[in-house]
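INTERNAL AUDIT FORM
Audit reference: QA-55
Scope: verify that the stored structure record matches its stored sequence.
Auditor: D.O.
Record contents follow.
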Amino acid sequence: MVPKLPPAAATRPSAGPGRPKDLAKRAAILEAAGRMFTRLGFEGASMDQIASEAGVSKLTVYSHFGDKETLFGEAVRLVCDSLMPGDLFVADPSAPLRSQLEGIARAFFAMIVSDEALATHRMMMSPGGDERLRQLFWEAGPERVQQAFTAFLEARAGELDIPDLPRAARQFFALLKGDLHTRLACGLCERPSAAAVDEHIAATVDMFLRAYDRQRA
């Protein structure tokens, strides 16, 4: 679930003595939690196992995250922040709208078809799952991405005719998922080729702009 963290994640400026060490431990815990949640599921992964995998004490895990639910939510948030960083959604008036939409679409699609994301999706959809866990997943992942994209659309509103920005954001990501994401999650198809991904993203962005681009209205 959690990609290997860049060195900067553990070495950003400290606020006091011992801070870099704490950040390194936090990064190790999140990385370990991602592996364990992906491999064993939420119920199967214990805090003891995560602590052992991270090379820290269980007390250290609890001191950083409080409980397993919070740790899971932070791991999901880190994935989204790592694969879809905030600067991806910064509107650049000097850049063509299509190119920015394609950049966001490409990052989102790469994220949702990764092995880790598909495993997490299956875990969330399994019968009898914990509703609170699903809510944590939604808030830490999909909801954050949709809110960031909604803000991007608002920033480029002069080029778009969108009466309901949050709905348009949901539509964009639903188009990107299509039936391909469901078939991948069910193990019914192979991962698409780079050419197929390019075609899918271009078609999605084109459909979105046909609906909302002021110049096409």
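Auditor finding: record pair retrieved intact. Residues 8-72 form a domain with the Arc Repressor Mutant, subunit A fold (CATH 1.10.10.60).
Action required: none
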